[in-house]
Structures are given as C-alpha cells and as structure tokens.
C-alpha cells in the first residue's frame, strides 16, 4: 500500500477531452455490429463496477489494460434521463457523466484494486473537469452498488487524505449506482479502433501510458 501511495502522489493526469461534435467512426457501423456479434463475450460470471473520470475513451482503455478485467463499455451514468445520446451528454443537457461499465473477475482483481486504478488514473481534486475536459459531464464519480463497496471507496479516500496524497481536497462524488446507458457503437473501443486520431494520439494514449508506468503490476501481460 505504501508503494501504491507513492505512485499515486507522483502520477499527474492530463485528463481527456472528447469532441463536442459527433465524431464520425473510422469503420462502418455495419462492420462494428458484425464484429460485436462475432466477439460478444459471455459476461454472466463477472462482477460489474462503474466509474466516471473524464472522457470515456481514455477511461475505457485504462481499465481494459488491467488484469482480471474482461470487458469495459463506455456509456452514461449519474443522471436521471433515460437513454441519453452523446450529443445530449456532451453539451451538458443531462446530469449524466461519461462513465464506464467494468466487467471483472473478483478472483483475479478485487473491487479495492479497481478503486485504486480509478484514483490513480485521473485527478480526483479537479471539480467538473479532467485536464481540458470541462463540464459536469466529466466529473469524477465512484459508484457503489452495496454497502461493502461504499465502505471500500470511502476508506480509500480517507487513506489518501490522511497521507496527503494530493495538495487539494478530493472532490470525487461517491454515488449509489442506479443505471448505466451504453454509449453509441462508435464510442466503444474508440482508442483501440482509432490509434491515429489526433486526440487519441495526443491525449488518450499519453494518459494510458502514464497509468501503465505507475501500475505495472496491475497490467495484463499483453498491456506491458
């Protein structure tokens, strides 16, 4: 734990900024649907966790690099509007945040470690902003589904504060999970599908690489 705290203190996050206008997919919608049908994993045996920490393109890629994580989906959570669209969320027309749904094997990676990944891969002291991303849709949220998860999150926040891990107060919201709405198909695996996209190249990939450098023992073999 002491080593992890040192890593957390030294980690500096730029955040992530998705385009305010709809980004055209590089591959066709038909290709995405066909591939999804062929590769859709059976996720019934996995647990789920939900986090928001800026643009979901970046957050999805980070959690997908973690050992024990089977699948990650980009989407929207934290608000009340049903079935929101990207445009509605991006322009602040809902109270949703860009979030991720993480499917993980608790025998390989614990919820505690996922919380550590969450706090170690963004700036939890930045209110309604991650790097260049501005607005409540990019706020920091750790969702919990039960009292045990809530205790894990609050205890870890207390630990970070007691160790003065940050020079500003942590403003992450700790919110009971209600619903998650999967984002449009072209947002899924966006970083992986669009490595030459200027935003991905200049913001997403550097953020992912900083996380990998600080959390080497948490990574899947192929992510090193």
Q: How would you explain this protein's 3D organization?
A:
It is a single chain. By secondary structure, this protein is α+β, with helices and mostly antiparallel strands. It has a single domain (2-15, 50-218), classed as Peptide methionine sulphoxide reductase MsrA (Peptide Methionine Sulfoxide Reductase, Chain A), CATH 3.30.1060.10. It contains 8 helices and 8 strands; from the N terminus they run ααβαβαβαβββαββαα. It has helices at residues 2-10, 29-39, 56-64, 86-90, 111-120, 147-162, 190-193, 198-214; strands spanning 47-53, 69-77, 97-104, 129-130, 133-134, 140-144, 173-176, 180-182. Strands 7-6-1-3-2-8 form a 6-stranded mixed beta sheet. Strands 4-5 form a two-stranded antiparallel ribbon. Strand 4 (129-130) and strand 5 (133-134) form a beta hairpin. Helix 3 (56-64) crosses helix 8 (198-214) and helix 5 (111-120) crosses helix 6. The radius of gyration is 16 Å and the shape is globular. It comes from Flagellimonas pacifica. Has an important function as a repair enzyme for proteins that have been inactivated by oxidation. Catalyzes the reversible oxidation-reduction of methionine sulfoxide in proteins to methionine. One of its GO terms (molecular function) is L-methionine:thioredoxin-disulfide S-oxidoreductase activity. It catalyses: L-methionyl-[protein] + [thioredoxin]-disulfide + H2O = L-methionyl-(S)-S-oxide-[protein] + [thioredoxin]-dithiol; [thioredoxin]-disulfide + L-methionine + H2O = L-methionine (S)-S-oxide + [thioredoxin]-dithiol. Keywords: Oxidoreductase.
